[in-house]
């Protein structure tokens, strides 16, 4: 079992190396990149905004409901919302959610091409199929920090609206909490994580789709396995990066 996993990891890194070999013509690649930006980035904005808004509100409300001691300042609601959204929710939990949405889309689209022998046809024509299929997705997901930035903003906005219009605190208290003890490196840390997660979101589902075997049923199984491994790897890398950058 261990040898099997090591073999898979080795094949994964070989695939990453193949992505940058024998580049497809830019006129063709440009169209593929813009299509993947539309499918993966633009197509994810709605669900990210919806989840971020309500999670931000929930964080603020739960913080407010636990402020039973009158000695604890009301500014803690803004502070807790900011820290939760910026440090963990936006970069990490949104990435786990995107492992389901983006990852399933990537695995199923490439897996379907494998099942219908379109990948074999690309190889016969002398096209580097790894570059043709995966490089546009990897390039498109370099815009993934844009999604996370929007998630941060909307999450904090959701916390603000829940606090002020829910009657849990004053606007001035929430804003003061947002500004209290702000550490700019936390933003840098969040976007470093986001960049690493973007690479994982592009390559792990692509790996499972590209090397899958079988028919239509196996496409669904590959999507499930890709989601599991992408999520596990994101959580593991989250721990490692937090230990390296914040400890």
From the structure above, extract its key features:
247 residues, mainly alpha, 10 helices, 81% helix, elongated
Give me the oligomer status: single chain
Given the structure, what is the number of helices?
Answer: 10
User: Strand tally, please?
Assistant: 0
Instruction: Please state the overall shape, judged from the principal axes of the Cα atoms.
Output: elongated
* N-to-C series of helices and strands: HHHHHHHHHH
- Rg from C-alpha positions? 21 Å
Biggest beta-sheet profile: none
Report the end-to-end length measured between terminal Cα atoms.
34 Å
Kindly state the percentage of residues in helix: over 70%
The unreliable regions are: none
Mean pLDDT: 88
Report the structural category: mainly alpha
- Beta percentage is under 5%
Describe the structure.
This protein is mostly helical and 247 residues long. It is 81% helix and 0% strand. It contains 10 helices and no strands. It has helices spanning 2-19, 26-41, 45-65, 76-115, 118-124, 129-140, 144-165, 171-179, 185-210, 216-245. Helix 3 runs parallel beside helix 7 and helix 7 (144-165) crosses helix 9 (185-210). The longest helix has 40 residues, at 76-115. It is elongated and about 70 Å long. The model has no long low-confidence stretch (mean pLDDT 88).
């Amino acid at each position: 079992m261990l040898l099997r996993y090591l073999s898979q990891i080795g094949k994964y890194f070989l695939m990453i190396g193949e992505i940058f070999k024998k580049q497809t013509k830019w006129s063709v690649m440009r169209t593929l990149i813009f299509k993947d930006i539309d499918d993966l980035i633009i197509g994810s904005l709605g669900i990210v905004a919806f989840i971020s808004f309500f999670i931000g509100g929930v964080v603020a409300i739960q913080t407010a409901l636990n402020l039973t001691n009158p000695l604890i300042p009301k500014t803690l609601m803004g502070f807790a919302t900011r820290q939760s959204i910026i440090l963990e929710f936006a970069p990490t939990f949104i990435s786990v959610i995107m492992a389901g949405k983006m990852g399933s889309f990537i695995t199923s689209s490439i897996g379907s091409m494998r099942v219908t022998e379109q990948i074999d046809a690309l190889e016969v024509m002398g096209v580097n199929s790894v570059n043709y299929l995966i490089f546009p997705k990897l390039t498109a997901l370099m815009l993934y920090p844009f999604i996370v930035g929007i998630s941060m903003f909307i999450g904090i906005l959701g916390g603000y609206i829940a606090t002020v219009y829910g009657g849990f605190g004053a606007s001035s208290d929430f804003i003061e909490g947002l500004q209290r003890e702000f550490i700019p490196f936390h933003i840098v840390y969040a976007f470093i994580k986001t960049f690493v997660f973007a690479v994982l979101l592009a390559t792990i589902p692509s790996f499972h789709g590209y090397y899958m075997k079988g028919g239509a049923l196996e496409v669904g199984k590959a999507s499930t396995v890709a989601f599991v491994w992408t999520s596990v790897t994101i959580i593991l890398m989250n721990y490692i990066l937090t230990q390296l950058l914040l400890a």
